[in-house]
Design a protein that fits this description.
Elements: H1 2-30, E1 33-36, E2 40-44, E3 53-58, E4 62-69, E5 72-76, E6 82-86, E7 90-92, E8 95-97, E9 103-106, E10 115-119, E11 124-131, E12 134-138, E13 144-148
Length: about 150
């Protein structure tokens, strides 16, 4: 009797684990992170050069993938704005952008570390590595440091 219930419970456990994994991987693929690779890229209102330029995004500007249409990717930025960018202007990479008005970028992963520089909202960075709640970032201008994850998207 115990063996029968145990196997039944194990099957339920595997089913739940499978469903959670499927849901998690679906959510992850829906939010693939890309970033601008060139100095500046036009994000447009539609999938083609004939569409209006909504914003000019700088290098490392992070974008979440929504869908693809030919060589164009529909993407969403940190403010929730949606637009289209040509696939040659982006690549999959770990990137973040500041979401607070004044962000301290520090010499190390702690508030006890010195401030290397301060940046405003909307500054994009390439992610070098993560350590706990801290992210080691590099700006396209070469500036590097550590920023707390609560300050970025």
């Amino acid at each position: 009797m115990f063996k029968k219930h145990f196997l039944k419970d194990m099957k339920k456990g595997f089913l739940i684990a499978f469903l959670l994994t499927a849901l998690h991987s679906g959510a992850a693929s829906a939010a693939e992170r890309y970033a601008i690779t060139g100095k500046i890229a036009n994000i447009r209102s539609g999938p083609g050069t004939r569409y209006e330029v909504l914003v000019k995004a700088e290098k490392n500007y992070p974008l979440d993938f929504i869908k693809k249409s030919g060589n164009w990717y529909e993407v969403k930025d940190f403010e929730g704005d949606v637009g289209w960018v040509h696939k040659s202007l982006i690549r999959k990479m770990s990137a973040v952008i500041t979401v607070k008005s004044k962000c301290n970028v520090r010499a190390g992963p702690s508030t006890k570390e010195g401030i290397v520089f301060i940046c405003e909202r909307g500054v994009p960075f390439e992610v070098i590595k993560r350590e706990g709640n801290w992210i080691n970032v590099r700006h396209s201008g070469g500036y590097e440091g550590w920023i707390h994850k609560s300050l970025v998207w």
